[in-house]
Each structure stands twice: as C-alpha cells, then as structure tokens.
Amino acid sequence: MKFIEAKSKFIQTWGALGSQWGINKTMAQIHALLMISPEALSMEDIMEELQISRGNTSMNLRSLMEWGIVFKEYKPGERKEFFSAEGNIDELARKIAKERSRREIKPTLRVLKDISAIDAEESTKAAHFKAKTEELYDFVSRADNMLEKIIDQKENWITKTILKLMG
C-alpha cells in the first residue's frame, strides 16, 4: 500500500470512528488529517486535502478547538492561521473522555435524577420505575466518578489500561 492510499484510508476510518466518540465524520476526518500531519496546516490546506467547503472546515475546526484536541497556531510572516492536533495520545484520550462526560453523561445523570423523583406510592409500576431509575443513576454516577478519576491521572499506564479494556 502506498502512502497516499494509506493516508486516505486512515482519514476515512478515523472519520467513521468519530461517530463512536460523539463527533461527526467530517470533524473526525479533519482531526485525523491534523493528527498525522508533521506540521500545522492552514484552513486552505485542510479544505483542499479533504475536498470540503470553507464553512464546513471552519465550523468543524472551531468544534475541535472547543474539545481541546486541536490548536490554532501562528507562523511568523504568515497572515493565515494554522492548526495542529493534540500530539499526545494519552492526553487526547483524556480530553475526549472528559468532553464526552460533560456532553453525554452529566446530562443523563440530571435526567435520571429528575425522573426518579416521582411518587413511588402511586402504583407498583411507579415504584418499580423509581427503583430502576435510581439504580441506573447510581450505576452511571459511579461510572462517571471512576472516569473522572482516570481523566485526572497523568500516568500513561492508566490510559493504556483503560484503552485495552475498551478494545
């Protein structure tokens, strides 16, 4: 397999994987391109490489920066902005986990807490519902607490262990 073909395959595969960690395909493809680029790329470089519009590129770069996994860079003598991806894979995994917790797990916990506050004396179905939603809340809360402890760790062995368990 030639470099160009391997690069394209990686970008396409990372794009498909993006939906698994809560981002759209184009956003993941931009991230993949930046991650494997030896130097920061301009918006025009990204647009040309991925054949996407300026608006789409701009919107997705902004989102990637909000996730904290893409950074804006300036080069002396250049008017263009350049972009690079988080280079440390352990740090990348921590940032993705933290952002997913904020966007997905925390809102789910709020909903579970709200819906389990029903009057359980209303019926046996209501009592069962309350018990199950409280059980789910406790489980998701413990999982989120464990995730937060992992995110806060800086040792590489923890991230590697978690990634092995997830794989």
UniProtKB/TrEMBL annotation:
Keyword Transcription regulation: yes
Record's keyword terms, sorted: DNA-binding, Transcription, Transcription regulation
All copies of domain HTH marR-type, residue ranges: 27-73
Keyword Transcription regulation part of the UniProt annotation: yes
Domain of life: Bacteria
InterPro entries to which the protein is assigned, alphabetical: HTH-GbsR_regulator, HTH_MarR-typ, MJ1563, WH-like_DNA-bd_sf, WH_DNA-bd_sf
Signal peptide positions (record): none
Family membership noted in the UniProt record: Belongs to the GbsR family.
Protein name: HTH-type transcriptional regulator
Originating species: Dokdonia ponticola
